Automatic annotation (TrEMBL):
Superkingdom of origin organism: Bacteria
UniProt domain Ribbon-helix-helix protein CopG: residue ranges: 6-38
Organism listed in the record: Aquipuribacter nitratireducens
Pfam families: RHH_1 (PF01402)
InterPro entries reported in the protein's UniProt record: CopG (IPR002145), Ribbon_hlx_hlx (IPR010985)
Protein name as it appears in the record: Ribbon-helix-helix protein, CopG family
Length: 66
């Protein structure tokens, strides 16, 4: 896979790679995997919130009218 970059991304990528002692490829790899994991976590939190809101909707409505 080829990755097209601009000068801003090149500069940031080079700085991160040097600071972390990693290759530029590894910096990109880790960034993508981290974002993937974070997106999955956000989905799970949202689903759990919806389940709990459904389960406790009557209590939440009563609390809202106090």
């Amino acid at each position: 896979m080829a990755l097209r970059t601009d000068s801003e991304l090149e500069q940031a990528l080079a700085a991160l790679a040097e600071r972390e002692g990693l290759s530029r490829q590894e910096v990109v790899r880790r960034a993508v995997l981290e974002r993937y994991e974070r997106a999955g976590h956000q989905d799970r939190v949202q689903e759990a919130g919806e389940r709990l809101a459904d389960r406790w909707s009557d209590v939440l409505q009563r609390l809202g009218t106090v």
